[in-house]
């Protein structure tokens, strides 16, 4: 019997400029878990596997990172298509570049002194700040207004050591994909 975590989110029938990102359109929450799925085995044993869930615990994407380099993370949909590509620069582990679809730069995530800055290709900025000195949760701000959060989560029974991001439904899918990248920079 399949559990909720074994089920894939159905692809929304939404017209979007980037069909691979249609999954992000109706969502306001993503959870990244360092958890291998049986499909990760197709990539071999020299990878770190992540499963990305929606707020209902359904799989949205799978992510793969090579163990030896840890410089690139490739995010795939249920059809096996790479939809988001994340890359750390060689000498800058606190910066992550985001391409979606792969080959099309959409923005970056940069960490500096516990603060994280999200920039899209137009230069728009979201800021992620810690709530307090001893608090792991972080708030997401746009023009000084709190619009979401990034936090460690153990919110589903079989998801351990997850990082969740909550954002407005109406947020642009490109910014949602950059915030997904922020989960990897902050949590892993």
From TrEMBL:
InterPro entries: Scramblase. It comes from the Eukaryota. One of its GO terms (cellular component) is plasma membrane. One of its GO terms (molecular function) is phospholipid scramblase activity. Belongs to the phospholipid scramblase family. This is Phospholipid scramblase.
């Amino acid at each position: 019997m399949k559990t909720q975590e074994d089920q894939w989110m159905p692809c929304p029938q939404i017209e979007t400029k980037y069909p691979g990102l249609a999954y992000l359109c109706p969502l306001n929450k993503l959870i990244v878990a360092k958890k291998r799925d049986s499909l990760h085995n197709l990539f071999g044993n020299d990878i770190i596997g992540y499963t990305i869930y929606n707020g209902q615990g359904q799989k949205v994407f799978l992510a793969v990172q090579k163990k030896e380099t840890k410089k690139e993370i490739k995010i795939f949909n249920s059809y096996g298509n790479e939809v988001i590509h994340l890359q750390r620069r060689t000498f800058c582990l606190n910066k992550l570049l985001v391409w979606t679809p792969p080959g099309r730069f959409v923005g970056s995530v940069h960490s500096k002194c516990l603060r994280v800055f999200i920039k899209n290709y137009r230069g728009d900025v979201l800021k992620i700040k810690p709530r307090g000195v001893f608090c792991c949760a972080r708030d997401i701000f746009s023009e000084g207004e709190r619009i979401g959060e990034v936090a460690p989560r153990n919110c589903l029974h079989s998801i351990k050591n997850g990082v969740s991001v909550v954002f407005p439904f109406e947020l642009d899918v490109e910014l949602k994909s950059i915030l997904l990248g922020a989960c990897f920079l902050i949590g892993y």
